[in-house]
Design a protein that fits this description.
Blueprint (H helix, E strand, L loop, with lengths): L1 H39 L1 E11 L5 E12 L2 E6 L16 E6 L1 E8 L4 E9 L4 E10 L2 E8 L5 E9 L4
C-alpha cells in the first residue's frame, strides 16, 4: 500500500515538473519573439481598454492603435481627462504621426518584461510614451502629454506584417 502511494506521488511530481518545464519553454519562446518584435521597430499596439487619470476604465470598441515603423510612430487613441493649460484648447484624442525621439528598450530577462520608452511631438502636444510588455496579450501603454493628464491603455501587440 505504501509502495503504491509513493509511486503515485512520484508520478504526480514528475508530471507537474514536466508540465512546468513545458510552460517555461513556451513562455521563453513568446518572450524571445516579443523581444525580436520590439527590436525590429515594426509593430502595432491595439488598444482595447483605457484608464484615464481621473475616472473609470472604458472598453474601446473602435480600432485604436499605436504603430511603430522604423523611426516613426503613429497614434490614434481616444482621450478623456483634464488639460493643464487653459489656452491649450485641444480636444480630441492622442494623435501623432512623426519621428520619435529617445527610443529606448529595457529588457528584464528574469521578470520576462520589456519596457519601451520614447518621446514624440504631435500637432498639439508633446508626449512621453511607455510600453510595458509582459506577454502578447498583456501590454500597457502609458502616455504622458505635456498639456494634459496622463492616460493608460491596455491591449495587445502584433507585427506590422499582420496588418
Amino acid at each position: 500500500m505504501i509502495k503504491k502511494l509513493l509511486i503515485l506521488m512520484g508520478t504526480i511530481v514528475l508530471i507537474f515538473t514536466l508540465k512546468t518545464h513545458a510552460q517555461n519553454e513556451s513562455g521563453d519562446k513568446i518572450f524571445t519573439s516579443l523581444k525580436e518584435l520590439v527590436e525590429s521597430k515594426a509593430y502595432v499596439f491595439h488598444a482595447d481598454h483605457m484608464l484615464p487619470a481621473s475616472g473609470p476604465s472604458k472598453y474601446l470598441t473602435d480600432d485604436y492603435k499605436l504603430t511603430i515603423k522604423d523611426n516613426k510612430a503613429t497614434a490614434d487613441l481616444p482621450y478623456y481627462g483634464e488639460a493643464y493649460n487653459v489656452s491649450y484648447g485641444g480636444d480630441g484624442g492622442i494623435e501623432f504621426d512623426n519621428e520619435y525621439q529617445e527610443y529606448k528598450i529595457e529588457i528584464k530577462e528574469k521578470k520576462k518584461k520589456i519596457l519601451v520608452r520614447f518621446k514624440i511631438r504631435g500637432d498639439k502636444d508633446f508626449y512621453k510614451c511607455l510600453l510595458t510588455i509582459t506577454g502578447k496579450s498583456s501590454v500597457t501603454l502609458n502616455v504622458q502629454p505635456n498639456n494634459r493628464q496622463s492616460i493608460q491603455y491596455w491591449g495587445d501587440l502584433k507585427p506590422l506584417s499582420q496588418e
